[in-house]
């Protein structure tokens, strides 16, 4: 599987796109991302490509969320 790099114009655009992907994972696996991440960290989920991608997307989501929260605090 060949990876594709996507460039977003803003952190908010990236957050929206990743949120949509997380929603798809959650619907397919019948589990929210936070629960999945906890189980994945504990080794209770396989290392199939879909789970590695989900884990990476969730980490990216958390980083973007933190970045945007910091920007909002600075603007307030």
How much of the sequence is in beta strands? under 5%
Rounded to the nearest angstrom, the radius of gyration is 14 Å
**What sequence of helices (H) and strands (E) makes up the elements?**
HHH
The structural class is mainly alpha
Distance between the termini: 43 Å
Largest sheet: none
User: How many helical stretches?
Assistant: 3
* Chain-averaged pLDDT: 93
Number of separate strands: 0
Low-confidence stretches: none
The shape, in one word, is: globular
InterPro entries: TumA
Describe this structure in words.
Helices cover 72% and strands 0% of the residues. It has 76 residues and is mainly alpha-helical. It has one domain. The longest helix has 27 residues, at 49-75. InterPro entries: TumA (IPR054794).
Summarize the topology.
Blueprint: H1 11-29, H2 33-41, H3 49-75
What are the main properties of this structure?
76 residues; TumA; mainly alpha
In short:
The protein has 76 residues and is mainly α.
